[in-house]
Amino acid sequence: MISAQEFLATVTESQWWDEAKLQAWQRRLLAPLLTHARATVPFYALRLNPVMRPDGSINWERWRELPILTRDDVSRNFKSMLSRRPVPDHGRLTDVSSSGSTGHPVTVRTTGFLNMMAAVCNWRAQQWAGLDWSKDMVAVMAEQNRQPGTVLGPWGPPWLAQAKKGRMIYTTYDTDNHLRLDLMADRRAAYLAATPGGFSVLADMARAEDRRIRLEAVLSRGNKATPFIQQEMAEVFGARTIEQYSSKECGTIAHPCAAGDGWHVNAEAMLVEILDDNNEPVAPGEEGRAIITPFGMSAFPLIRYDQGDRLVQGGPCRCGRILPHFHEIAGRVRDDFLRPNGEVIPDLSMEARVALGAGRWQVAKVGEHSYEVRYVPRDWGTARDPARFMALFRQAFYDEAVVRCVEVTDLALNANAKFKERTLEWHP
Known about the structure:
This protein has 9 helices and 18 strands. The protein has helices at 4-14, 19-40, 71-76, 112-128, 177-186, 196-208, 227-237, 350-356, 386-396, and strands at residues 94-97, 107-110, 137-141, 168-172, 191-194, 217-220, 240-243, 245-247, 251-256, 263-265, 270-275, 287-294, 305-313, 325-332, 358-365, 370-377, 402-407, 422-424. The chain starts with a helix and ends with a strand. 37% of the residues are buried. The mean pLDDT is 92.
């Protein structure tokens, strides 16, 4: 297995390769994955036949004949999708379960190879963003039987002299947020890595307690950091928000372009296709389903996996990087609100939030044409304007839609500190 140091050197160079050289790299990693899956994974014994020639070589021209792997396939076939002979060089095997933000949680078996690739792609993106690995970061992590506040090793490439100075400060999803704020202040942390839901809770608390804590950046994972949350981070902590697009099944998929124009796929670690409902590639500017094949998932191969996200296809990026590019993450298929004519309903605007006098909120579909906005009140320095909110709601939704606004004292995060601003609670 390639080392992290070697892989970082590769991805630092490969972002500027031409398309042919990048494709050759992808096929160099994809070919042994397909061969391994067919030979050692019962689920793939026949499924990969369209691309497998009698001599064992790969017919890449028939790639799109391979069936799409659904979340339902994964959840129903866990045992038959496990490799009977995991690749020894691919490191530690770990069973992980998704949070179910798509409405369909799944469990897969990841490898050290997948996790190494994800870490290296994160480091490259941190270089794009100009982060300083010599400074401390408070991180929200899965439980590791450590005390919150434990000082871990470097969060940057550990072989670099600069990164050896920076420390990751350990906290968990259920660490008390007063303690988390104390750690950020006491360590004079420059960075915070957490979920957007966790950011908004910390911002509310810091504002209520008049905590003057400054950060250079927050590193967001797990959900989209909405414009509201990004504004909160800037106002409360003075921090810019740096997002990543990732999943527990596939690792780190994409990062925002350094030039500020959309997202670049970590194509050295996976193949990402953006397809329409007929499984055909979409054109630039069109929206499609994200179909992902992570090269490091050898213990539980995910070949042409539809994880339930929608992306808007991009074209050549102005930054000059050849890495595949898309304009935006349009959302989870499960989170769609639809007008009666089938159009997707956009998010409510900041103007609507201010008119309602809301800070954090959640919009829930609770009936065929019934919605509920649950919100934590916020004083925006202007009088609330319920009539203006209703006008903005109808403008975004549709005339038959009925909305009930419910003031609450808090909006709970789930076990992984995730929070969905829109949720479907009614299904026909």
